[in-house]
Specification:
about 250 residues; alpha+beta; Arc Repressor Mutant, subunit A; 6-stranded antiparallel β-sheet; two-stranded antiparallel sheet; Tscrpt_reg_IclR_C
C-alpha cells in the first residue's frame, strides 16, 4: 500500500521523536506507532549506538549521533554562516574561539578558530564536551531552570576533569546563578588544566538554547576575563540573530 510506512520510515520517525521525548509511551504517541514497535526500534538504536538507555525506561540520543553530527557539521552551512562573527571574536580577543551545539545532555564542537598565540588547545570539531565543567556547558545550563539542571546532572553525573572541576550540585547551581547575573560563564581550569575560558549561550529562531560560543586561552595570558566576556556576549548575540533569534 502506498500509504504504509516502511521499516526505515518507522525507524527514522522514532529517531526524530527521540530528540523531544525520552519515554516509550511519549515516542509512541508522537509517532503513532505501537509501543512494542517503538521499544523494538529503540533497542536496535541502542545496539548501534544511536540511542542510550538509563535502564529505567528513559532514552536519549547516543554517541554515534554526536559523532555523525560533528562530521556533518563540518559540511553544513551553520558554522560557515557564522564564521565571520567567530573570526571577528578571535581577532578582537586573540583567544581560541569555539562554537558548540547542544546535543542531548552534551554539546558538540561545530567550529574552532585558533588563537593568536603559538599553541593549540586539545579541542576539535566533532568532539563532545560535558556541560558542568566548561564555559560553553555552563552558559547553556544557565538558560535552564535549576530543576532541569538537577535532572540533567542526575543523568550525567559530575565527574572531575581536573582538581578545579565543580563536582557537587549546589556549587554548580551557585555558579550558574552568577552566570545569569553576569551574562557569560567562566571556566577556570575546570575542564582542562592550564586553560581558562568564557562562554555565552546561543539561541535559535524559536528562542530555545542552541549552543554557545566561547573564547579560551592558557592561564599564563594575564588578560581580564571580563573584557573577553563582553566580547563573547556580543558574538553570541550576533550568532543567535544569524540563526533567526529575536
Amino acid at each position: 500500500m502506498a500509504g504504509e510506512r516502511s521499516a526505515a520510515d518507522k525507524t527514522l520517525e522514532v529517531l526524530e521523536a527521540l530528540a523531544d521525548h525520552s519515554r516509550v509511551a511519549d515516542i509512541a504517541k508522537g509517532t503513532g506507532l505501537p509501543k512494542p514497535t517503538v521499544h523494538r526500534i529503540l533497542q536496535t538504536l541502542v545496539r548501534h549506538g544511536f540511542a542510550r538507555s538509563d535502564g529505567q525506561g528513559e532514552y536519549v540520543g547516543g554517541p554515534r549521533i554526536l559523532g555523525l553530527a560533528g562530521r556533518f557539521l563540518q559540511r553544513l552551512d551553520i558554522a560557515e554562516q557564522v564564521r565571520p562573527i567567530l573570526r571577528d571574536l578571535q581577532e578582537r580577543s586573540g583567544w581560541t574561539v569555539h562554537l558548540a551545539l547542544l546535543s542531548g545532555d552534551e554539546a558538540v564542537y561545530a567550529a574552532k578558530l585558533e588563537g593568536a598565540k603559538p599553541y593549540t588547545l586539545a579541542s576539535r570539531v566533532g568532539m563532545s564536551l560535558r556541560l558542568h565543567c566548561t564555559s560553553i556547558g555552563k552558559a547553556i545550563l544557565a538558560t535552564m531552570p535549576d530543576a532541569e539542571v538537577r535532572a540533567l546532572l542526575a543523568r550525567t553525573g559530575m565527574p572531575a576533569r581536573t582538581e578545579h572541576t565543580l563536582v557537587d550540585e549546589e556549587s554548580l547551581l551557585a555558579d550558574l546563578a552568577e552566570v545569569r547575573r553576569r551574562g557569560y560563564a567562566e571556566d577556570h581550569e575546570e575542564n582542562e588544566a592550564g586553560v581558562r575560558a568564557v562562554g555565552a549561550a546561543v539561541f535559535d529562531h524559536t528562542g530555545a538554547v542552541f549552543g554557545a560560543v566561547s573564547a579560551a586561552a592558557l592561564i599564563y595570558q594575564d588578560d581580564p576575563l571580563s573584557e573577553r566576556g563582553d566580547l563573547v556576549i556580543s558574538a553570541a548575540k550576533k550568532v543567535s540573530q544569524a540563526l533567526g533569534a529575536h
